Structure formats: structure tokens, C-alpha cells
Amino acid sequence: MKALILCAGLGTRLLPFTRTRPKPLFTVSGQPLVQRLIHALHRAGVDGVVLNVHHLADQFKVHLQETPYPIPVALSVEPSILGTGGAIAANARFMGDAPFFVVNGDILTTIDFASVYAFHMSHNGPATLVLVDDPEFNSVLVTEQGRICAFEGKDPIPPCRAAWKRTFTGIQVLDRTILDYLPETGFSHSIDAYHRMLLEDRPLHAYMPPHAYWKDIGTPERYRDASLDALAAEAFHGVCPQSPVTLQPVKKTRLAGDGSDRTWFRLFRNTTTLVAVDHGIQTVPGATEMKAWIHIGRFLDSKGIPVPAIHAFDFFSGQAVMTDLGNVSLQEYVHNTRNPRDRLAVYKEVIRRLIDFSVTGTRGFDLTWTCQTPFYSPEFILEKECRYFMDAFVRRYLGLHVPSSISLEEEFLRLARLTMEHALFGLMHRDFQSRNIMVFEGQLFFIDFQGARIGPIQYDLASLLIDPYVALPGSVQETLLDFAVNRLARRRTLTPRQFRKGYQYCALCRNLQILGAFAHLSRVKGKRHFEAYIPAAVKTLVRHVAALDDNLFPGLCALTERIAKAAGI
Question: What structural domains does the chain harbor?
């Protein structure tokens, strides 16, 4: 028994993603679709497969070189696309005399190929087409006797008393009789051959599996849906091993996002919930934010650091499924906690966990996991914090005219140098604020750690304490800073005075980054709710700049006065 998997299409509806990867090599749960199909056909008894290829054909050659299969898999390269009918005719010799499968290479399905073949062998018709009920694509008319009597777009052959309208899955079993209805060479459609069969009263049988999953990935939306269905099946089985891996359309609701462009969903199966994140289809090779999040998250989890467990992921689709940590962030928890002692207690626990993150997280941390830079550096401070602040907040958001100033650039360089000179290095989260800390079942969890790198421990501490979402009073910040110094001294050798000085510089760097980010998110990304937190961040900036040595940062001091006036503070 042989099979032809159709892989030659251009995938125009999936542009721009198919410019660099053909559809059948799109991955689902880390496995290319064509690989899943080959293994499913092998389980059904197929002993040889041919792939017809055209678009990006060399990628299929590489795939076959790198992927071992239990049965022979050959390539049939088409210099020009032959269509389904042309591909069948071109590979007729490979198929042999027995009925053979022809399967689209861009589908994800649980349809049992062995049952399809057995059904075909049970009747005398020359073709069996597998049909499912998909309202988006239903176009094949089927009688009560399970015979196909017409294809939408073709003139019906009377009498055609259709009981159902169904979708052709791209899965079919054919006798060699099909070749009598196809030209020997050149382009042709198999549907045209089927229509001619109907005109001659040759029976086309419909196999309609009652309970089976099927989805083609013809569009980005359908690919993302198929990918998430597969990841959800894997993840739910991972958290409930006693339940089977069931591929089915996942029940989901969209969650409110925050500053990033990622999309979040809550997934449901029975009484279990999980959370999925969609970074978008990933076509950029090398390190990406999504890859950093996966590698770093799994590493932190292995170290016992409180992060959500990542149960399933696919690098190409950009999707992952993780533990559901509920909806309560530290920001919400603090705002709903009226007792100051309780607030202080939870912040102390956050700091204990942060110290563990910073110290333990460096042991075995692989710098290749990082997606921007492996280290927090003076160059990074200048580009991603100081200049970001000037461009996004000062010039674009406030509209202040600040001529290019060599002296101000020199002050930013001085700030970057002093920050690094007073740094106590550890693993740095880089966005350690109250919305990235979840409170779930009495425990604290850290999220959004994809920007982690080696850097000053003081930076994350500053991010936590000057966080505008909560706006802790200055006295509380000082109390928590004292607590952090004392706790950290048990784990690392440090000089309190130098640590505090480094904290001061890190807090200023973080303050600049916050204002740049809020301005960019509100004006460029259209997320105007971030504007509500800008006044608190400006007040913090005024306080930190006032604590600087005026002789070292005169330009920044003068600029801060202008900012405060422009912001009405």
C-alpha cells in the first residue's frame, strides 16, 4: 500500500510565512505536519510514501536527510506545479496496482487511515473521499446512501438528492481507474476527474467519520487554531496523565493583555484550566523573545524558582501552554489589602523570592538563551533606557525641544558607568514589577521573565520598589531596601554602602525606562491606560534626580525641572 502526500502548493493564503517555509513543514507541537501524516499512514499499513514538491523543495530534501522514517519516503520534484490530478498521474508507477492514498500535506487530523482503507476495500467503487462537517468549507453533496453526487461549482448530475453537504478533507483512497480520467502529463484537477466519473455513473463513495478531528492550515488563523488545539491536548494530558491525549477544538476565552503584543487565552477542559500565550508565527531565525521565555522559564522551574510550569510549546507557531495562575497580580493584591503590615509582609516575601531568583538563577544559566543581550551593560543602558526616555517620552510624548546635547549624552554615559561600577551581579529579570508577580493560592509566582540576563541585582529591587502601578510611599521603600540589604548579605558578600549607591543609580535607569515605555505604549501602541501612571513615575524621577550630585548631572537636573513643569508636577 502506497501513499502520495501533496506538498507542492505555494501557500499563498499563508503569506508572508510561506515565503520561508512550505506549509507541510509548519510544525504542530514541534513536529512538521508532513511528519505526523507519514507516521499515521505507516501505522495504517502504508509501506512507501512519495511527496510531490515544488515550492521550497530543498527544505523537504533537508527534512528527509535529518528525519528517520520507518518506511521509504521519496520526493517527486515538480519544476512547475501539476495540480492534484497531475501529481497523481506523474507518480502512477510508484503507486503500484493496489488502491493508494492521496493526502493533502497541510492538514492536522485524527482520522484513522486504516479504517478509511478498510472502508474503501469494502465497496466496488473506484474512489473513496473522506468528508467532514465544517460549515466554513462544506461544498460536497452526499446522498443518504453515502454516495457523492455533486461538487459545488460543478453542474449537478441529476438526479442528485443530497442529504448532506460536507467538506472534502483532502484524504482519499483511489484505484488505478482514476488514471483513465486524468491526462498523462501536465496540470490537472482531481475534482475534474471525479466529475467525469459521475457523468459516467461511476460511484464515488463518501467516508464520513463520526468523531474525528480535522483542520487544514490554509490561513494563519487556521494554523494558529490547529497548533493551539494540539498543544492543549498535550498540556491537558500532562497535567492529567490519567486522561488520554485528545485532539479536539479547545475551549478558550481571551484574556486582557498588557504592554506586549502577545495574545493570551484561558483554556478549559472539564474542571481544569490552563493559560496559553501566542507570540505570533516565528519566522526570524536565532534567538527570539519566545525562545528566551521557554528556555529561561523551564530553567527557572527546574531550580525551584516560582514560575508557571510550561507544559507544551511550539517554536514556529509561537504558542505555549502553561499553568493557570489565576487573575490576581501583586498590584491587585496590594490594592485590596488595607492593613499596612500585611502589605509589608507580602513585599518582604517577594524580596526573599527575588533574592533566590537572583542568586540561584545564575547557577547553570546559559547566556545563549537571552534574546537581546546576555549582560546588562553601559551600551544597553544608553540605548534602551536613556535614549529611549529622551526619544519616546521627552521629545515625542511631552513635545519638549531638547537640542542634541553632548553634555547630556556625557551625563547618561556617566550614569551608565556608575551603575555598573556599583553593581552586585546576579540574574536580572529586567521587568520586575507588580503586574509581573502573581498571587495564586497563597503563593507568589514570577512571570514575563523573557528579558532575563546577567546584571545588577539592585535593578530588579528598584523596579519593584519604585513601581508606579503601586506607588509605595518613600518610607516603605526605605524599609524594604533595608530589609533587602540584610537578607541579601546572608547569601552574597556585599558592602551595604556600595549596594545602596548602585540601587540609587539602577532606580534612576529604571525610572527612565518606565517613562519611555509608558509614552511608547500610550502614543504608539494606542494603549492609553498607561498614561494614568506617568505622573507617579515623574514624581519618582524628580525625587531620584534631586538625590544626585548636581555637579555630576547638571543637564539632567535642568531637564527634570522642565519635565516636572510640563507634566504639571
Answer: 2-216 (3.90.550.10), 220-323 (3.30.200.20), 330-566 (3.90.1200.10)
CA dihedral 201, 202, 208, 214 (to 10 degrees): -110
| Residues near 306 by beta carbon (within 8 Å), at least 6 away in sequence | 353, 443, 444, 445, 446
pLDDT, tens only, 46-85: 999 999 999 999 999 999 999 999 999 999 999 999 999 9
The answer to whether residue 259 scores a pLDDT higher than 70 is no
Q: Which of 125, 294, 116 is nearest to 209 (CA)?
A: 116
User: C-alpha grid cell for residue 513?
Assistant: 525606562
Rounded to the nearest 10 degrees, what angle do helices 534-546 and 554-566 cross at?
150
Q: How many CB atoms lie within 10 A of CB 349?
A: 12
Q: Count the Cβ atoms, other than its own, within 10 Å of residue 443.
A: 11
Nearest to 105 by CA among 202, 238, 4: 4
515 within 8 A of 393, measured Cβ to Cβ: yes
Rounded CA gap, 49 and 1, in Å? 9
Residue type at 518 in one-letter notation: F
Q: Does residue 531 sit in helix, strand or coil?
A: helix
For 414-440, letters b (16+ CB in 10 Å) and e give ebbebbbebbbbbbbbbbbbbbbbbbe
Q: Counting beta carbons within 10 angstroms of the beta carbon of residue 161, is it exposed (0 to 12), middle (13 to 18) or buried (19 or more)?
A: exposed
Q: 3-state SS of the chain: helix, strand, coil percent to 5? A: 45, 20, 35
Q: Are 538 and 563 in contact (CB under 8 A)?
A: yes
- Whole-angstrom distance, CA of residue 248 vs CA of residue 261: 27
CA angle 363, 357, 521 (to 5 degrees): 120
Closest to 150 measured CA to CA, from 186, 109, 199:
199
pLDDT in tens, 150-199: 888 777 677 777 788 999 999 999 999 999 999 989 999 999 999 999 98
Query: Could you tell me which residues are beta bridge partners of residue 447?
Result: none
Paired with 425 in beta bridges are: 456
Contact at 8 Å (CB) between 429 and 356? no
Instruction: Give the containing element (helix H, strand E) for 406.
Output: helix 406-421
Q: What is the pLDDT of residue 285?
A: 82
| Model confidence pLDDT, tens digit, residues 340-393 | 999 999 999 999 999 999 999 999 999 999 998 999 999 999 999 999 999 999
